[in-house]
Amino acid sequence: MAVAALEQEILSMRKRRQLYSLMGILLVAAVLVSGYSKSNEMNSGGFLQGLPKFFDYPGEIVLEAWQAGPAFFGLIIQYIPAMLETLNIAGVATLLGGAMAVILAMASTRNVDSWGPLIPVVRRMMDIMRAFPELIIALFLIFVLGSSPVPAMIAVAFHTAGALGKLFSEVNENIDRKPIEGLSACGAGWLQRIRFAVMPQVAPNYLSYFLLRLEINVRASAILGFVGAGGIGQELRRTIGWGKGAGDETAAIFVLLFLTIMLIDQVSSFLRGKLVGASRAH
Amino acid sequence: MAIDTLNEPVFNRDTVFRNVRRRIWITVGAPLAILTYLTYTWFAFNVPNLLAKAQPERAAILATDSVAYKVYVTKFLRRDIMEVAIEGERRATYSQEDLPEWVEVDGTDAVIDLGEGYGVTIVGKVMEFTVPGYGTIKVTATNSGVKTELPSGQVPDWLKDNPKKLDARPTLDRRVQVTRTKIEVHNYFGGWENFWFPFHSELHGMSFSQLWAIALSNERLDQNRSNMSLIMHDFLENPDWQHGEVFVALFETIMMAVLGTITAALFGLPLAFLAARNFTPSRFLRFGTRRLFDFLRGIDMLIWSLIFIRAFGLGPLTGALAIAFTDTGSLGKLFSEALENIDNKQVEGVRATGASQIQRYRFGVIPQILPVFVSQVLYYLESNTRSATVIGALGAGGIGLMLVETMKTSRDWENTSYIIILTIVVVIVMDQTSSWLRRKLIEGR
Questions:
Q1: B389 with A136: Cβ contact below 8 A
Q2: How far apart are CA B268 and CA B282, in angstroms?
Q3: Would you call A133 and B389 a contact, using CB atoms and an 8 Å cutoff?
Q4: Domain of B26?
Q5: Cys-Cys link to A68, which of A105, A183, A248, B228 (CB 3.0-4.6 A)?
Q6: Which stretches of chain B drop beneath a pLDDT of 50?
């Protein structure tokens, strides 16, 4: 009897689960269908009308790049300084944001003896920093400081501090507390405990997240350039604004951007593999 | 035996010293390298020049203007009329019978009380502006420009006087401008003006309980529609705030993020099977799929959206496709890594019951990668909400484009801050929803 009741219960639970799954799938399908038809309506050009034109623009710039011949490589080299500026924006933003994130993470994890009352405050602060879209800070600072790489840098750094801070504090939560206790037993202060007990444990993971963020930030700073923050994005906006005839320059920027992002991607995933591999060996 | 081991040091002395020396190099070298890099970028970004050219007063203006509105008292000298209007808008002009109490209009002359002893009198073409602690500024508009009589003493910073125009702003919230065609007095008040309803709407200035009563009463204010729909209409069509358009733009942005992420997940998952070592024996196919992922990711959202704008025009579809293309690459890569790390025992177990290929995938593989799938998709959804604002600014539309446009006109900063606040609220809500869903679906709490 008891077994039959159990079976009944399991069957009804399975039924309910299947129902929930079905509802979930239907919901996703409904969102997709209605969303795409609605957004197709809202778009200034329709999907079906645009489809044949999809390859027109890429084709056009590839053609112009082809016609430019060997001079095309000259164009790529010509835009390297702008690309470097974008990389610098991302680099400085990741460094400053990362440094800030370490401080925030150390102040917001119970596991590393952060000061209790500060923990929820810093956590909310990081949530807000993460939520601020970079675009808003960048536009505001461009208005105040003028068009320059610095607004983009500050905007990206601000967001990075919040995003990395959260990841770092998650790393802090999973460390071994024994070294901290050992150090406090011999009278070490908080900073000394952080330096000699926490940092050695978390450094590989921190670096790995840092590299991942650098990769994301390069993309973000390229995009912010497009709204007036300098670097490769700004050049792209200029050449695109010229319309026909500047297709070879646009293509050169596309190629340069693509190569840089690929390169950073590969290098960072290689380094991350090494870092996390190293920490696993211990 | 114990003595034997004592003779042989466990660590080689040289190795230890080499390691210590290397550590020293890293501890000193890494900060130095970072410092050098930062110094280089300090000059590469031309920060000294930037600091010299920065306009911090713009931040102050923006801050004041985003929490305050101004009421204009304008005398148009050519047409010889006096107008009092919020933000100088024609559609928010006070009628002559119902002026604010700090303005007294007598025909085409006026006495304006700006509070704290500041006051303006306008008689004919002459304006007198009394400033406590300074004196009275007397300005006469002439046919060619303005003639100013200042009190004796040094001319303060807040007063810009030239033959064409006088501009005086003794405090942040009081300002006077005179040119040969008009005399204009700005009085600033805190708050967002006409936020709920347009100035000339019958509903303007009503409290919430009054509105509630109107919405429920069956006496129609407008014969053609119900009160409820009148309230909605007047609110959404408010010309100063454009609530309706702002909401549509926000909706577009959310739609871009949601559609893009779901599409990317739906295409990324099957492709991930093709890129995983343990599911696709063909090295050629695997290599091809992986390079496709790299390609999609490497092109980046910026370039994808520029290409899609050319093909499909402006709108949410463009943004959604740009997000979908980039993230098919990113999610595909993540999923294929998750697939390579699954436990084969579960698949073997399902196979032992005589399950077919599809059943093995369904019951052996999918349950293992579902947590990764759901949590990554939700993470991406959250970050794509932010990306969608940026893509919008590139031209795809949505709230990003609206923000850039209101900032460019830089006339009504309160509109900009309204949009900024709404955007941040939406991002935070998406963030909270996705982490709530993640907790619910994965940890079952």
A1: yes
A2: 19
A3: yes
A4: 2-35
A5: A248
A6: 1
Tokens of A184: 């406090």
B326 min Cα distance to partner chain A (Å): 11
Q: In this structure, which amino acid lies at residue B243?
A: H
- Asked, for residue B232, whether it belongs to a domain, the answer is no
- Would the pTM of this model clear 0.90, i.e. be above it? no
Instruction: Return the residue in A28, A135, A221, A240 with the most chain B beta carbons within 10 A, the one to mutate for interface testing.
Output: A135
Domain with B427 in it: what CATH number? 1.10.3720.10
Domain match, B186 and B119 both: yes
B198 in a domain, yes or no?
no
What are the tokens at B202? 């019958």
Predicted-complex ipTM score:
0.83
Whether the CB of B176 is below 8 Å from some CB of chain A: the reply is no
Residue B77 and residue B27 share a domain: no
Question: How does pLDDT run across A207-247, given as a tens digit for each residue?
Answer: 888 988 998 899 889 888 888 888 888 888 888 877 666 77
Domain covering A61-281: architecture? Orthogonal Bundle (1.10)
Tell me, yes or no, whether B285 and B376 share the same domain: yes
| Residue B259 at interface with chain A, using a CB cutoff of 8 Å | yes
In a domain, B197, yes or no: no
Is the minimum CB–CB distance between B275 and chain A shorter than 8 Å? no
**Between β-strands B126-131 and B165-171, what pairing exists: parallel, antiparallel or unpaired?**
unpaired
Element (H, E) at B73: strand B68-76
B110: helix, strand or coil: strand
Of B44, B386, B404, the CB nearest to A139: B404
**Structure confidence by residue, pLDDT tens digits, B27-38:** 889 889 999 999
Distance CA A255, CA A72 (A): 10
Phi and psi at B122, nearest 5°, equal -120, 120
In a mutagenesis test of the A interface, which of B34, B300, B399 is the best target, namely the one with the most A β-carbons within 10 Å?
B300
Binary contact (B55, A28; C-beta < 8 A): no
